[in-house]
């Protein structure tokens, strides 16, 4: 079984204002509460190269109140909202 590595589905513009993160899609804007910037940081880090545990490890030093389950829950919610997708790391076969 492969570790899933979440990533943003497209390079949608993101705007931060008044403690919220706004993701601008082609037809709508999706907003998230983001008073401390943690959601914005998650979007920046979710490029398909890190597992959810890796995302947490990268965020933990800057967001000490964050727990790994918070990151897992956020990834799940962003996948359900259609903004993130999960990818398995590619396998390379030896010739």
Order of helices and strands: EEEEHHHE
Helix content: 25-40%
pLDDT under 50 segments (min length 5)? none
Query: Rg to the nearest angstrom?
Result: 14 Å
Gross morphology is globular
Please state the second-level CATH architecture: Alpha-Beta Complex
SS strand fraction? 15-25%
Count the strands?
5
Tell me the span between the first and last alpha carbons.
Answer: 22 Å
* Whole-number total of structural domains: 1
Q: Strand sequence of the main sheet, in spatial order?
A: 2-3-4
The largest sheet, given as strand count, sense and whether it forms a barrel, is: 3 strands, antiparallel
Mean pLDDT: 85
Describe the structure.
- This protein is α+β, with helices and mostly antiparallel strands.
- The chain has 3 helices and 5 strands.
- Strands 2-3-4 form a 3-stranded antiparallel sheet, with no helix packed on it. A two-stranded antiparallel sheet has the order 1-5.
- The longest helix has 13 residues, at 68-80.
- The two termini are 22 Å apart.
């Amino acid at each position: 079984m492969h570790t899933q590595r979440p990533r943003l589905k497209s390079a949608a513009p993101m705007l931060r204002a008044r403690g919220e993160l706004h993701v601008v899609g082609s037809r709508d804007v999706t907003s998230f509460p983001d008073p401390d910037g943690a959601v914005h940081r998650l979007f920046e880090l979710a490029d398909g190269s890190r597992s959810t545990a890796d995302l947490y490890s990268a965020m933990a030093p800057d967001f000490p109140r964050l727990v790994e389950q918070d990151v897992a829950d956020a990834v799940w919610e962003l996948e359900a909202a259609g903004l993130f997708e999960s990818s398995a790391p590619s396998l390379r076969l030896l010739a």
